[in-house]
Specification:
The protein is built from 17 helices and 17 strands. It is of the alpha/beta class. The structure holds S-adenosylmethionine (SAM) and iron/sulfur cluster (SF4).
């Protein structure tokens, strides 16, 4: 019930992010000097096979297109460099960022030539984890490697349409990487149609037994179109079961001494996470389908590869839509992302918005406190009771973004 209410509220908030303006000129950009060092998300939208449940902007790998894409990425980055932006932390996501290792290495060299690179996080699939790739990623300076396992249950992996099994082979590859980077993370999906709570518990236990640094557990997020496609292909996407899956995470990990870096991400010790939306209040995303938050504005890049190339050939930023967030929206977005990361520092809120949280978001704060979802005064922390409602809020927020993605992908905006 409570989860339904908070979910509804966030769905309403999230919808506002869909109302975007299209025309953009330099005047809407925040002065880079006011922002300082921020994080850069780099999207590589190519995969060797396409998983039907995946909600990201991705295309079937074609070598010539992918090589050309890396060239455009550098051009897009150049445009931000020309505006004076500077970055310290880098997140490669996909798609499959390791799809062309030589291009990836060249791009990282380019980053090192322009910035003081502090940390690099990178996603890949189990299939791409080999001794050779591990050595090359280490040499390139990757600090955190995130491997999309999704499940160690062969039947679930098959139902997900992923040709990455058998699970013994996935485990062998994950263990090859474990210990080679500051942090190795594995991604799992829960509440997949047909997946049982026991199957998921076995995944969480396997993660513990393998002693991997970190795991991120994503509740299945389906946009309306994807939801019906999934239902046609598999079974019912049943949100009412989600809580039972989440309780497995809480019982097996949170109560078992693992640290929650976010409500979805658990580590053995303090580790690097890939949630740039938590660590940095502002971030820029480059690549087809990336989003950025900068100085109170929200920007979305074109999802179309053709349009991406076309705009960059004219040295134009490939932004397809943008929106100035109202102060309240901005503050609520801040609250949501910090709660997702388990803690909000009220002093930092005041610094960012020039006014205290109690005067700005009093009803929200009161609601969260009265229900026992958060506690604390200077540092507001999510309680164990609050973790599932916050997970629902984040799922709803990402689902709203997925609606936007789906619309932009379909219309090739
Ligand atoms: C964009 S993928 C990149 C990882 C890599 N390509 C792979 O599949 O192994 C990052 C993670 O997002 C999660 N993900 C993708 N689609 C999702 C969906 N519809 N709902 C929930 N999580 C999803 C998966 O856990 C995946 O590992
Ligand atoms: S889940 Fe990963 S491998 Fe599958 S389509 Fe999405 S990005 Fe590609």
């Amino acid at each position: 019930m409570l989860a339904n209410i908070v979910g509804w509220v966030i769905r309403r908030e999230g919808r506002k992010f869909l109302k975007l303006r299209q025309n953009i000129d330099d005047s809407v950009f925040t002065d880079a000097r006011e922002i300082g060092e921020i994080s850069l998300y780099i999207h590589i939208p190519f995969c060797r096979t396409l998983c039907p449940f995946c909600c990201f902007n991705r295309y079937l790998f074609q070598e010539d297109k992918a090589r050309q894409y890396f060239k455009y990425l550098k051009r897009e980055l150049d445009l931000y460099i020309q505006k004076g932006f500077t970055f310290s932390d880098f997140y490669f996501g996909g798609g499959t960022p390791t799809i062309l290792m030589d291009e990836l290495e060249g791009f990282i060299d380019y980053l090192k030539a322009h910035f003081n690179v502090k940390r690099i996080s990178l996603e890949t699939t189990p299939r791409e984890v080999s001794r050779e790739n591990i050595a090359r990623l280490k040499a390139a300076g990757i600090n955190r490697l995130s491997i999309g396992v999704q499940s160690f249950d062969d039947n679930i992996v098959k139902a997900m349409g992923r040709p990455f099994g058998p699970s013994e082979d996935m485990k062998r590859r994950v263990m090859m990487a474990q210990g080679e980077f500051d942090t190795v993370n594995v991604d799992f999906v829960f509440n997949f149609p047909g997946q049982t709570v026991d199957q998921f518990r076995a995944d969480v236990q396997a993660f513990k037994e393998l002693n991997i640094d970190q795991a991120t557990f994503y509740p299945l997020m389906a946009s309306p179109h994807k939801k019906s496609a999934l239902e046609r292909r598999f079974n019912r996407v049943d949100i009412s079961q989600e809580r039972r899956f989440y309780d497995v995470i809480l019982n097996e990990l949170y109560a078992g001494g693992y640290q929650a870096a976010t409500v979805w991400c658990f580590s053995r010790e303090e580790r690097m996470i890939d949630e740039y939306i938590i660590d940095f209040d502002d971030y820029i995303g480059i690549g087809a389908g990336s989003v950025s938050i900068m100085g109170g504005n929200f920007y979305v890049n074109t999802f179309s590869l053709e349009r991406y190339g076309e705009l960059l050939s004219r040295d134009t930023l490939p932004i397809a839509g943008w929106r100035k967030l109202a102060e309240k929206e901005n503050q609520r977005y801040y609250l949501l992302t910090k709660l997702f990361g388990m803690e909000l520092d009220t002093g930092k809120f005041t610094q960012r918005f020039g006014a205290g949280m109690e005067s700005q978001l009093n009803p929200e704060l009161l609601f969260l406190k009265l229900l026992g979802l958060v506690r604390g005064k200077d540092k507001i922390r999510v309680t164990r009771k609050g973790m599932y409602p916050v997970s629902v809020m984040m799922r709803e927020f990402f689902t709203s973004l997925n609606n936007l993605r789906e619309l932009y992908i379909e219309e090739q905006i």
